TrEMBL record:
<dbReference type="InterPro" id="IPR017850">
    <property type="entry name" value="Alkaline_phosphatase_core_sf"/>
</dbReference>
<protein>
    <recommendedName>
        <fullName>Sulfatase N-terminal domain-containing protein</fullName>
    </recommendedName>
</protein>
<dbReference type="InterPro" id="IPR052701">
    <property type="entry name" value="GAG_Ulvan_Degrading_Sulfatases"/>
</dbReference>
Length: 171
């Protein structure tokens, strides 16, 4: 059962290739959470919402972005701008300064800002592997390293310089 989706996706892609439509098709696969817990795997809620797999399959249209693995924070809003870049519409692409940016365009790690709202975890801003949580009730902020502290138990915010705090508070 574990590889059922992989097998079926392979069959689907094979049928599109056989029918001659694969090169005219863009396949987008996204999820809303990561790996489900399994008996032999320790998986926390925080890890499952910060490590979500996705794929864009666009035969011959990705250029240098083919096979690209993005470790930085991304969001579903990025899909529209990415599809626009893949198809060349509009000419020159969308403006890349609002919510949603093309995943084909190289952005330095940690500069991509993602807004996240998990009702059980307050409002959040994610940049790279860092998540800033804001609690409206207490007006408090906590900064966590999601790569090394999935359970978000260590608050990094008090240890930041005044300049670093100001940068995070700006968002």
């Amino acid at each position: 059962m574990r590889y059922f989706a992989d097998i079926e996706l392979g069959k689907f892609m094979g049928r599109m290739e056989k029918e001659g439509i694969l090169n005219d098709t863009i396949v987008v696969i996204v999820g809303d959470h990561g790996q489900a817990p399994e008996a032999e795997v320790t998986n926390t809620h925080e890890e499952s919402v910060t490590r979500v797999a996705g794929a864009i399959i666009a035969e011959g249209r990705l250029g240098n972005a083919a096979g690209l693995i993005i470790e930085d924070a991304v969001e579903q809003y990025d899909i529209l701008n990415t599809l626009a870049d893949i198809t060349g519409l509009p000419e020159g692409g969308f403006v890349q300064n609002g919510i949603g940016r093309s995943l084909k365009r190289k952005v330095p790690f940690g500069e991509r800002v993602v807004f996240s709202n998990d009702p059980s975890r307050k409002m959040s801003i994610v940049r790279g592997h860092r998540r800033l949580r804001y609690d409206q009730v207490t007006a408090s902020m906590m900064l966590h390293d999601t790569e090394n502290d999935h359970a978000m138990t260590r608050d990094l915010f008090p240890g930041l310089s005044a300049e670093e705090r100001a940068e995070w508070e700006y968002w």
